[in-house]
Design a protein that fits this description.
By secondary structure, the protein is α/β, with parallel strands linked by helices. The chain is built from six helices and six strands; from the N terminus they run βαββαβααβαβα.
Length: 181
């Protein structure tokens, strides 16, 4: 069930629209680190693995409009699959994250994309290769082939250094705004 922006009307709010973003990918690819760097601007090298889901709030200004993102950090472990799918409902966009140093996490991107599509339909997505500060085990050709085959935008990030952590969200913002405004 989708909500209309007017349902969120409040005299005290300082945003025009609200949208839910889900961040998905295998365990330990850096989803939490990426989100925390985006929302709080900090990096903590020792996060505890997410159990279930957490969410964060961040406002983005796009086209003279403030969009409030609730960014949902989902658990990547298989055992949380049934619970995780429930948290996808109502999402307006998705960030698919893999670890550039882990080819298996890249190979599972189709799994994550399909899981989100089954729950949310055809929502805007971007895929992210995280840990760009380390040596990549995934080739540029593999990444380009995936992007082309799925018609999806790719962003390379490093939550550790802060490189490009805002780009996936700023890519999604106008696409989401078009769908809800």
């Amino acid at each position: 069930m989708t909500s209309h922006p007017s349902e969120y009307h409040s005299e005290k709010r300082d945003y025009s629209y609200r949208a839910k973003i889900v961040v998905v990918g295998d365990a330990a690819v850096g989803k939490t680190s990426l989100i925390v760097r985006f929302v709080k601007g900090v990096f903590n090298p020792s996060y505890i693995i997410t159990l279930g889901v957490n969410f964060f709030v961040q406002d983005i200004n796009v086209r003279n409009t403030t969009l409030r993102f609730t960014v949902w950090d989902t658990a990547g472990q298989e055992r949380f699959g049934p619970v995780r799918k429930k948290y996808y409902l109502g999402a307006r966009g998705a960030v698919l994250v893999f670890d550039l140093t882990n080819t298996e996490s890249f190979e599972r991107l189709n799994f994550w994309m399909n899981e989100v599509k089954q729950a949310c339909g055809d929502i805007p997505m971007v895929f992210v290769g995280n840990k760009a500060d380390l040596h990549s085990a995934v080739t540029a050709e593999q990444i380009q082939d995936f992007a082309t085959a799925n018609e999806i935008t790719y962003v390379e990030t490093s939550a550790k250094t802060g490189m490009n952590v805002v780009k996936p969200f700023f890519f999604l913002a106008p696409l989401i705004l078009e769908s809800i405004a």
